[in-house]
Specification:
The protein folds into 2 domains: 189 residues, Endonuclease I-creI (Roll); 95 residues, no CATH class. Helix content is 58%, strand content 12%. The chain is built from 11 helices and 8 strands. Helix 9 crosses helix 11 and helix 10 crosses helix 11.
Length: 306
């Protein structure tokens, strides 16, 4: 089964339906590739779809056979594809065609027109991005070759699209990352992965609903426990009064509520109030138990138990 990240990259690639879009994506891949200069243009990827896209589009520009592909894998690990543009002439031709160089920047004069800019970001994601399965956690990141490019990407996303990223370092790598589900949803939509965005939204709704239910259940359980502890205290007071001065010492209304509590230890105050003749409110029941508690406290005090 393919990962969520794989499905996002598959959806991005499936939506590239014109040469202009393909060129913008390729520009993003090259800008964030593992090596980019006249001596070497190289992309490392574990995704076969990304490898195929890179090879077919570079060969569209530079000719068939202009890209070499090497496969490597360790036991139990995913295959790694090393794709390289073969000759210096081809590398120069590619850089000229893309109107870029080895400076790796996302400045305004390096970007295509506005409607194609999201495809550059999509290309960056294909080259060095990943996103976690949202059922586990919300996390999308780009492993960026340089700090300057890291800053360029962060400013581009916030200035143009209002997507706020964070930066960290992991070993020798600079990481641009998102952890807020809303930002990740916006990012996936921006890059052309609307189905992935919808899937993440559905997961978020399901998680939020589950959390809401859990909070409600926990609250109900806490209220039940609180009511049971209160009932135990009330019964303890009633038993003390019964064993000392007797329930006959209580007024008719207090004796009525005391006997109802004896017979219904699991009911809350509102439910007890409905059994009183005539029915009384929760606060009325609570007021009667306060009087019973005060009498029990007085008995304990006189017995030297306080």
């Amino acid at each position: 089964m393919h990962s969520f990240s794989y499905k996002i990259k598959e959806e991005i690639i499936s939506g590239i339906n014109s040469r202009d879009k393909a060129d913008a994506v390729l520009l993003g891949i090259l800008t964030f590739a593992n090596a980019l200069d006249e001596k070497r243009i190289m992309l490392l990827t574990e995704n076969e779809l990304v490898k195929d896209f890179f090879v077919s589009n570079v060969e569209r520009i530079c000719g068939e056979g202009s890209v070499s592909v090497e496969k490597s894998s360790k036991r139990g690990e995913q295959t790694l594809f090393t794709t390289s543009v073969c000759g210096e002439a081809e590398r120069i031709e590619l850089l000229i065609y893309m109107q870029t160089d080895s400076s790796r920047c996302l400045a305004e004069d390096c970007l295509p027109k506005d409607n194609l800019c999201p495809y550059v970001i999509a290309g960056a994601f294909l080259a060095c991005g990943s996103v976690n399965n949202p059922m586990k956690k919300y996390h999308l990141e780009f492993v960026v070759p340089t700090l300057e490019l890291c800053n360029d990407l962060g400013f581009l996303l916030i200035d143009r699209y209002g997507i706020l990223c964070k930066h960290t370092e992991r070993g020798q790598s600079n990481i641009v990352y998102l952890k807020e589900s809303e930002n990740i949803i916006d990012m996936l939509t921006l890059m052309g992965a609307s189905n992935g965005s919808i899937e993440l939204m559905n997961v978020k709704i399901e998680k939020d609903m589950r959390n809401k239910i859990n909070r409600a259940v926990n609250c109900d359980n806490a209220n039940i426990e609180k009511a049971l502890r209160a009932s135990e205290r009330q019964i303890s007071d009633i038993e003390l009064i019964d064993s000392t001065v007797g329930l006959s010492a209580l007024s008719d209304s207090l004796r009525e509520i005391a006997l109802l509590r004896y017979e219904n230890p699991d009911l809350n105050l509102s439910q007890l109030g409905e059994l009183v003749t005539p029915a009384i409110s929760r606060s009325g029941v609570n007021h009667r138990f306060q009087k019973i508690s005060a009498l029990a406290q007085e008995i304990r005090k006189n017995k030297g138990q306080m």
